[in-house]
Amino acid sequence: MKGGHVIDPANQVDGSFDVAVSAGKIAAVEKDIPPLQSRKVVDCLGFYVTPGLVDIHAHVGHGGAPLNWFAPDARAHVDP
């Protein structure tokens, strides 16, 4: 991933970096990883790259949530 704004509080990273992934794991986070070292390059300029978004916030429910999920009579509040 090239040029994304990487935010990783656990490693005190907040800025424009490249991220290398190998075998499904982060292999490197550096200012400039040469594209020739990669099998595939994804342009992430203008995007945030951050770990753990599901750890930060997720909506999980039986059958998904309807648009009116917050209404007292919404399907989301009925036992499956």
Question: Any chance you could write out the topology, listing elements then pairs?
Answer:
Layout: E1 4-8, E2 13-22, E3 25-30, E4 48-49, H1 53-56
Parallel strand pairs: 1-4
Antiparallel strand pairs: 1-2, 2-3
Helical amount = under 10%
How much is the radius of gyration in Å? 19 Å
SS summary, helix count: 1
Major beta sheet summary: 4 strands, mixed
Poorly predicted regions are none
The shape is elongated
* Sequence of strands across the biggest β-sheet: 3-2-1-4
Order of helices and strands: EEEEH
Q: How many beta-strand segments? A: 4
Strand content: 25-35%
What can you see in these coordinates?
Helix content is 5%, strand content 29%. The longest helix is centred in the C-terminal third of the chain and has 4 residues, at 53-56. The chain has a 4-stranded mixed β-sheet, with no helix packed on it. A hairpin with a 2-residue loop joins β2 (13-22) and β3 (25-30). By secondary structure, the protein is mainly β. The termini are far apart.
Task: Name a few traits of the molecule.
mainly beta
Produce a short descriptive summary.
The chain has 80 residues and is mostly beta strands. 5% of the residues lie in helices and 29% in strands.
